[in-house]
Amino acid sequence: MRNIRGESIRPRRSRVVRHLIRCALPAALLAQPAWAQAAAPAGEGAEPVAHYGLLRTRDLSPFGFLRLDMRPAHAVVSPPGNWAVEADFGYQNTWVLSRNVKTYLNTLPGRRGLGPDEVQAIRDLPGEAFLVDLELGLLDITFHRKFTENWGVFATVSGVMYTGGFLDGGIEWFHRSLDFPDAARPRAGRNDVHVIFDLKGSQTTLTSLPDGGLLDPIFGARYTAAPGRAPWNYVIEWAVKVPFDGEREFFSTGHFDFGVQATAQRFMHRHAAYASLAAVHSRSNSVAPATEEFIPTVILGYEYALNGHTNLNAQLYMSPSVFTSADTGLDELRDNKYQMSFGLRHRIGSSLITVGVTENLVYFNNSPDFGFQTAWIYSPAFAH
Cα–Cα distances in Å, from 54 out to 32, 266, 311, 351? Predict the structure, then answer.
C-alpha cells in the first residue's frame, strides 16, 4: 500500500465568512449583549411567541453518516402524555478529492465522464488518493413520547437513497458567481457517482451504489431540567443505534453505537440561543474504514421568532473527522468539519414545517459541499 503524505486543500473562502466563523457567531451566542437584554418579555402586551430549538439536521458526510449522529435537541414545551411524530428529509451533494486527483483532472481536455481509463489513472497516481462524487437523501421518521414533566423517550427509523443527483450544475454556477474555486468539477461528468479510495488501510473503487435501503433504528431517552417556560433550560439525551441485520455495506456498520448530548437553552422573548455538546462512541464501516471511535460534536445556534407562527434559525456545526493519522496521511480527510445551517420554521395548527440549507465552511474536502433539509412535525402541543 502506498503511503505518501498528501497536501491539504484549503479553499479560498472570503474573509467575511472566516471572520463570522471564528469570531462573531460564538460571541453572539454565548454572551448576553445589550440587544438580548432589551429583548426581554415586554409584559402583558408582548406578543406571544414560541421557540422550537436547534434545527434537527444531521451531518450527512458520506464518510461517517452510517454512525450514530445525535440530532440537535428541540425546545418544545409540552405536558406529560404528549406525543409527536417527526419526518425529516435531508439531501446533500458531495464532491471531495485529494490534491493529486484534482491536479490530474485539470489535465483532462474539457468535461467528460470518468470511464475505466480515467479511474485507473487515478488509482495509479503516486501516494494516497481519493475522489467521492455522489448525492444522497436521508429520511428519518421519529416518534416522541413524554411520560413525566422531565422525562421522555424517542425512536427513529431511517431510510437512505444514493444517486448521482441533480445539483452539480447549480453548484458550479454558484461557485462561478462568487468566484470560488471549482475544485476540478467541470472536468468530470455531471450527476455521476464515483467512490475511489486508495488510502493506507482502504482500497475501494465504485462507479455505482445501491439505490437505497433501511438504516439501523435509533432509540433514546430525554431529560428536561426546566420543562416549563423558563429563561434557561438544560436538556440531556441518550441514544443507541441498534444493528438489526449485521453489517450491510452502505446501510449499517453492524455495530451498536452509543451517544449522549447535553444542550443549554437560553430564551429572551423573541430571541433564543443554544449550545450543544454531544459525544458518540461508534465503529466504522467497511466501505471507508476509519479507526476513530469517539466523536465529539459542538453546535451553536440562534433562533428568532418573527411572530407567533414563524421562526428563523442559524447554527454552526463543528466536529472532528472520523479519520486519524492511522487511516490516512491526507490532511484534507483529517481536518475538522465546519458546517453552517440556516432555516425557517412555520407553524400551522398542530403542524410545524421546516426548510433549511447547509453549506460547508473552511474545508470542502471532508464533508458535503451543499445540502438542504425539510421537515414536518405533528404534535398536539403545537395547538396550545
Answer: 19, 12, 11, 17
- With a CB cutoff of 8 Å and minimum separation 6, the contacts of 333 are 63, 98, 130, 199, 321, 323, 327, 365, 366
- pTM, two decimals, is 0.83
Q: Is residue 228 classed exposed, middle or buried when 0-12, 13-18 and 19+ CB atoms within 10 A define those classes?
A: exposed
- Letter for the amino acid at 161? M
Query: What span, in angstroms and rounded, lies between the C-alpha atoms of 93 and 263?
Result: 29
pLDDT digits (tens, 9 = 90+) for 340-367: 999 999 999 999 999 999 988 866 677 8
* Cβ proximity of 326 and 200 under 8 Å: yes
Q: Which residues contact 384 (CB under 8 A, 6 or more apart)?
A: none
194-204 residue pLDDT tens:
888 888 767 77
Per DSSP, the residues of 124-186 read TSSS-EEEEEEEEEEEEEEEEEE-SSSEEEEEEEEEEEEE--S-HHHHHHHHHHTT---TTGG
